[in-house]
Amino acid sequence: MPHIVVTDAPEVTDIAVISDGLDQFNVDISGIADRRPLAVLVKDPETRKTLGGVTGRTSLGLLFLDVFFLPEAMRGSGIGSQVLQMAEAEGRRRGCRAAVLYTISFQAPEFYKKHGWREFGAIPCDPPGTSRIFLTKDLLPSA
To answer: How far apart are CA 140 and CA 133, in angstroms?
Structure first.
């Protein structure tokens, strides 16, 4: 009988077993092996240190944006819009038809909506009055 463990500190190898296993399952069923990580990084020009950006992945025709962060001093400067547009463009280049992400109501739902993303769901979370907002965007060219 397998031993089942709950942890808040999984090893990198533990996460890889799960991620790679699911990826292989998807390939076996779909016949498509296109899962790739994606990052658009904002770097300090002198130190080359990463200051912010977005991370995600592409898979089975979808762009998933997972984590997007910019330091406060960069917000409202247009850098976030540029990063988002670059991620969307890379998704299109990889053949993605649509993009998906979630944000929190106190984070940036209006930022995404301003860039053509539309809300398709919300789930209440903590603190009270807060929600996870799920958004999507069509990446296909307009006809």
So the answer is: 23
Q: CATH number for the domain including 51?
A: 3.40.630.30
Domain carrying residue 51: 12-138
Task: Tell me the CA end-to-end span of the chain in Å, nearest whole number.
Answer: 56
Q: Strand ranges (DSSP E) for the chain?
A: 36-43, 50-59, 62-69, 98-104, 118-125, 130-138
- Identity of the residue numbered 13: T
In this prediction, residue 141 carries a pLDDT of 76
Domain count, the chain: 1
pLDDT for 142 beyond 80: no
Work out the number of other CB atoms within 10 angstroms of the CB of residue 39: 15
Read off the tokens for 75.
């917000």
Strands 36-43 and 98-104: unpaired
CA 53 to chain centre: 11
The first and second tokens of residue 111, run together, are 């930022």
What is residue 20's predicted lDDT score, i.e. its pLDDT?
A: 94
